[in-house]
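Researcher: Next sequence.
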Amino acid sequence: MKLYRKGEKGEAVCEECAKLVSTTFDYRDVPFEDGLGTVKGILAAVCDDCDRVVATPPQSTPAIRRAREVATRPVEISVPAPYVEILDLALYRINARATAEHRKVLLTYFANKVAGDPDPKAVVQGLVTRSKAFSASLGRVPRRRLSFKVTPRSHALISSLADAASASRTDLLSGLIMQIENDLVRPDKPKGMAEVEAAMAAAYA
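Model: Next structure:
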């Protein structure tokens, strides 16, 4: 594998210039694609025409990954075990090779789905009511911890949905799991499964 150095020349497609351009490798601060955060001082290919970063070499990948991990926000809740079982069953139904790491993708997908509703506050309140009724029906069962890291944007979305409905983060995520059960677990042929599968695949492409 080639190790690139500052000042080396190359070629790449520049989206800004909309053409193949000559590039020069240089150390730059590079923003994440979603605009939420920046990785500082990594080697990158810079367009000789417009001076924008157009590509990063493999040797910069570990630094990007570390910066992304720092930029993420933790989410941690404790719920009755059946909630985690519902979530994992839904994941298994989507892809038998899904892991615990995919839980955040599915929850974030449904959070965005709720946020797109004309009245997300009412939707969240309804889901929280269903969740509380479900929890009351469980009796004494073990509790499980759900812990994962999400992007700042997803973290803000989860917080805003919870705040709008005067709900806790635990109540919101528990409610989302109720919606996941309703949409993906209970139906023999879930509607929108292809869209969910595509979202999961895109997250880990």
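Model: Residues 14 and 55 are 9 Å apart (CA to CA). The two ends are 22 Å apart (CA to CA).
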